[in-house]
Amino acid sequence: MTQQSPIGNNARARSLEPVWLRKLPAYSFSLPKLYIVSVVTSLRVQKKKTRLPQKRILRPIFLLLACCWLSLEGAHPAATTQPQPCLAPLQWEGRTVQYDHTTGRNVRASVTYDAVNRRIRVLEEKKGLVPCKKFFEYIYLYQDAVMFQIEQVTKLCSKLALTEEWDPYDIPDNSTYEDQHYIGGPGDQISVQEWSDRKPARKYETWVGVYTVKDCYPVLETYTRNYSVTTATRFFDLQLGISDPSVFTPPSSCQTAMPSKMEYGC
């Protein structure tokens, strides 16, 4: 018995392919394509045994196979898109806990955030009774490059120049996508994305932000400065909008404000 040449078999199978199938992109889905070719070949062989017109037999099958092929093409890894930074709310009220890794101190506060006018008001919460410990209110007015520090009991006020640029609670456009995961457990969880300022030329991140997938609320922001000073801020109980814009107006005691920052101790 004479063995048939594989090349001849391939050419014969190729000739049985419809024109539209030959023009499909040659992605990594070679196995599904071979399956489609085998189905088409089988159908044409069966057609020779019947008297029905070829179009009536093959046209619906071709359409079905084309849909299957396109769905496989859409599932190709190259077709997946990289997540893009979401737009965080511009105005909100909520609570935060900021941990300073240098001092080991947690600061709990109520925060009013206004990115439209570039201003933030931070009111430290009184948690526990610590002798000589002072609690402050801070008003950051970045458009005026000034910060007010008000002692909550005596209303003593300090007025200081803001040397740092406005840094909103959001995800910069040039951020690097790190991960997406869930916070919580089954039946009680939210989906969040993690972003950073990591770049190929820099070994460490100086900023890492975690934001909710839905509505883009901040959950956690971590800053590292000079590879040693690290602060981590957690956000919770956020509400959209600003209920009382007057919180950004310094009290009358700030008209005679001191030029130096007040300390937390006695």
UniProtKB/TrEMBL annotation:
Molecular function terms, GO-annotated: calcium ion binding
Protein name per UniProt: Mammalian ependymin-related protein 1
A biological process term (GO) from this entry: cell-matrix adhesion
GO CC annotations on file: extracellular region; lysosomal lumen
Protein's cellular compartments: Lysosome lumen
Main function: Binds anionic lipids and gangliosides at acidic pH.
Domain of life: Eukaryota
Source organism of this protein record: Pleurodeles waltl
Family: Belongs to the ependymin family.
Cited Pfam families: Ependymin
